[in-house]
């Protein structure tokens, strides 16, 4: 489990491509590697990946074909920066909202407004997911727990504060980029339950 509070952006230093999977080598600072062991879970751009090896200043992750097909990890290049969060530990402060690291879909950036007063990103996503992306609700975007701004039938807005831009890779966002989306599980459960009950009662 994760909180959506990104701890660092870390560079992809190598990508070893094999049939059915890619092995990512991510450079991590000593503080982020402290206590990290093989088999541990780490969120990479919001995707829960298992540590397969630790060597010197880098950590290795295997990404299966299924994960590559549904996330933006397939588009990584050497030099890309990843949002990294270690898994939640007992007694940790939860500053965001609970994320599982299981990506539901991707959203494409359709607008970026960067001025002296604000940094806004508009994202386009398949309409079916907008049932769970609600104004002032929470959504996981590349592993960041963020509050949803204005919504339409297939878009939603993010208003990013300087601290978020400093700690994450969202300051590099540009039109056409794809971002990993994890919807809030509680919102999904409530919406699906209400829709099922209404359908059973013949209410549309």
TrEMBL record:
Q: In which pathway does it act?
A: Cofactor biosynthesis; riboflavin biosynthesis; riboflavin from 2-hydroxy-3-oxobutyl phosphate and 5-amino-6-(D-ribitylamino)uracil: step 2/2
Q: Does the keyword Mitochondrion apply?
A: no
Cross-referenced Gene3D superfamilies: 2.40.30.20
Q: What does this protein do?
A: Catalyzes the dismutation of two molecules of 6,7-dimethyl-8-ribityllumazine, resulting in the formation of riboflavin and 5-amino-6-(D-ribitylamino)uracil.
Q: Which GO terms describe its cellular component?
A: cytosol
**What SUPFAM superfamilies does its record include?**
Riboflavin synthase domain-like (SSF63380)
Which major enzyme category is it?
Answer: transferase
* Protein name as annotated: Riboflavin synthase
Q: Which InterPro entries match?
A: ATP_synth_asu-like_sf (IPR023366), Lumazine-bd (IPR001783), Lumazine-bd_dom (IPR026017), Riboflavin_synthase-like_b-brl (IPR017938)
Q: What Enzyme Commission number(s) appear in the record? A: 2.5.1.9
């Amino acid at each position: 489990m994760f909180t959506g509070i990104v701890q660092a952006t870390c560079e992809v230093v190598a990508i070893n491509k094999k049939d059915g999977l890619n092995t990512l080598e991510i450079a991590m600072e000593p503080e982020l590697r402290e206590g990290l062991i093989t088999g541990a879970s780490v969120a990479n751009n919001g995707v829960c990946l298992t540590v397969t090896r630790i060597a010197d200043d880098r950590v290795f992750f295997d990404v299966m074909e299924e994960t590559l097909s549904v996330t933006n990890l397939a588009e990584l290049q050497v030099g890309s920066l990843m949002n990294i969060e270690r898994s939640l530990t007992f007694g940790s402060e939860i500053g965001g909202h609970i994320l599982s690291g299981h990506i539901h879909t991707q959203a494409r950036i359709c607008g970026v407004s960067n001025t002296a007063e604000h940094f806004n990103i508009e994202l386009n996503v398949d309409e079916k997911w907008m049932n769970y992306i609600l104004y002032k609700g929470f959504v996981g975007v590349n592993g960041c727990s963020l509050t949803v701004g204005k919504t339409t039938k297939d878009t939603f807005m993010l208003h990013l504060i300087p601290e978020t831009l400093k700690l994450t890779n969202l300051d590099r966002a540009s039109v056409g980029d794809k971002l990993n989306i994890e919807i809030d599980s509680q919102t999904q459960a409530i919406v699906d339950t209400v829709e099922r009950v209404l359908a059973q009662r013949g209410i549309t």
